[in-house]
Amino acid sequence: MAANNSFLSNLASTPKRFFRQELLPLLADLRLAIMLLLAIAFFSISGTVIEQGQSPAFYQFNYPEHPALFGFLTWKVIQVIGLDHVYRTWWFLSILILFGSSLTACTFTRQFPALTAARRWKFYDQPRQFQKLALSTELDAGGETLQVTSLETLTQQLQQRRYRVFQEGDKLYARKGIVGRIGPIVVHASMLMILAGAILGAMTGFVAQELVPSGDRFQVKNIVDAGPWAEPQIPKDWSVGVNRFWIDYTPTGSIDQFYSDLSVLDNEGKEVDRQTIHVNKPLRYRGVTFYQTDWAIAAAQVRLNKSPIFQLQMVQLDTGGKGRIWGTWIPTKPDLSEGVSLVAKDLQGTMFVYDNSGKLISTVRRGMGIQVNGVTLTIVDLIGSTGLQIKADPGIPLVYTGFGLLMLSVMMSYVSHSQVWALQKEGRLYVGGRTNRAQVTFEREMIDILERLEMPLAQEKAIA
Q1: CA-based, 20 to 30 A from 194: which of 13, 232, 247, 300?
Q2: How far apart are CA 291 and CA 213, in angstroms?
Q3: What is the pLDDT of residues 108-161, one digit of tens each?
Q4: Would you say 256 and 250 are in contact if contact means Cβ atoms under 8 Å apart?
Q5: Cα(121)–Cα(44) distance, integer angstroms
Q6: Alpha-carbon distance 438 to 215, whole Å?
Q7: What is the pLDDT of residues 158-190, one digit of tens each?
Q8: d(Cα 219, Cα 163) in Å, to the nearest integer?
Q9: Closest-CA residue to 158 (of 145, 148, 169)
C-alpha cells in the first residue's frame, strides 16, 4: 500500500517537475526570447509592406502568379498563409503569447530573485571576503593623523553620496540605485502590457469604410476587417449624420484640405456630439474613431427650364489611372429619348457637357445655364461624399500605457546599482564595492571616498 502511494505521489509530481526543471528554463531562455522578438518584427514588417484587409481581386491584380514577387510571393501564398491579415492569424497571435510567456518566465525566475537579492543586505565579517570584490582596499584605522578611524566617518561619506547605509557593530553595508534593479521588471511588465493590448485589439477591433453623401445619415455596416470578438464594438444604438462636406482648394486649383461636419445621433435622432473633422483630426466617440480619408462626387442637382430641382447620382468613371472624374446622364425630354452627359473632376471646377455621340457641347460652372436640345439646363450644385475610415481598437489604451512605462523603465534600467561593504577589525579598515554598470564612474567615486578617508584632518577641513 505504501509503495502504491509513493508511485502515485511521484506520478502526480512529474508534471510539476517537468514544468519547473524543463519547460520553465526553456521559456526563460534569452535566445528563445530573441528569436521570438525577431519573428514578431519580421511579420509585423510584412504586415506593413503587404496591404491588409483588401479584397481577393486586389491581391490577384497586385500579386500575380506570373511573375511572382521575389519568385514566390503570389496572391495564393498571401491568402493561404494569411499575410493579408497578419495581425489576426492564429500563428502570429501564438508567437505573441509565447513571447509573453517567455517574458513572464524570465521575470519570475531571474528578475524577481535579482531584486530580492539586491534588497537583502549581507555583512562581510571576514577580510578574505573582500578579495572577491572587483574593487577593494585595506586602510590603517589607527593613525592619529587620519580623519577616518571608524565606520562612523565612512558612513557620513557614503550618506553624502545618497547611499543607504546599514551598520551592525564593526560591519557596514551600503547601497544605492535599487531602482536600477526594478527597471528590468518594469520593462517586462510594459512589454507584456503592449502584447496584451495588441492581442485584445486583434481579437475585438474592427475596421470599416463608408462613403456618405453630404446630408445623409448612416450606421457603421461596411466592415472590411474585424476580429472574432468584434461584434460588441460595432455601434448599434447610435448613428452618424454628415451635415456637410466641403473641400478647400489652393490658388492653383489643387486640394488643400477636405472637411466633414459630423453629428453623432442617438436612436431617437437627438444630437449627442458634433465635430468638424479633417485629415489628422478625427472624431472619437465611445471607443470608435472616424478618420477623414477620401472624397467623391455623389450627385448633381440640375434644373430643366423652370422645373423643380432634381438630383442625379454621379459615378466614378474609369480613366485607366489618369485621374479621377465623375459623370452622369441628364435626360432632356420626358420620354428619355434625348439627353446629355455631365462630367466633373472636382467640386469647384469646370464641368463638361457632351451629347449622345460623345461630342463636347459646352462647359459650365455651378449656377450657370446652357441651351441644349431646346431646353435650358442649369447645374444648380454638386453634392460631395465624404470617405470615412472607421476603426475601433480596445487595446490602444493598453498599448499606449505600455509604451509610456517602457520609456520610463528604460531610463530606470540605466541607474547603476552600487554596493559597498566595510569591516573594521584589528586596527584595519577593509572597504570594497561593486556595481552592475558605469564601472568607471563607480571606481572614481570609491577612489574619492578612499582619498578622503586617508586625508589628514587639517587638509580635509581646508578643502571643506
Answers
A1: 232
A2: 16
A3: 888 888 777 777 778 998 999 998 888 888 887 655 444 445 688 888 899 999
A4: yes
A5: 45
A6: 65
A7: 999 999 999 888 899 999 988 888 888 899 999
A8: 62
A9: 148
d(CA 173, CA 123): 6
φ/ψ (deg, to 5) at 313: -70, 140
First to last CA, the chain: 80
What residues have CB less than 8 Å from 22, skipping those under 6 apart? none
Question: Which grid cell sits at 27?
Answer: 521559456
- What are the grid coordinates assigned to 299, written together? 450627385
How long, in residues, is the chain? Answer: 464
Q: Where are the domains of the chain?
A: 2-114, 124-177+416-463, 206-392
Maximal CA-CA distance, the chain? 123
Rounded-to-integer distance, Cα 444 and Cα 72, Å:
59
Burial group, residue 257, by CB count within 10 angstroms (0-12, 13-18, 19+): middle
Indicate the helix (H) or strand (E) that contains 328. strand 325-331
Per-residue HEC secondary structure of 187-213 comes to: HHHHHHHHHHHHHHHHHHCEEEEEEEE
Q: Which cell numbers in the block locate residue 331?
A: 435626360
Fold of 124-177+416-463: TATA-Binding Protein (3.30.310)
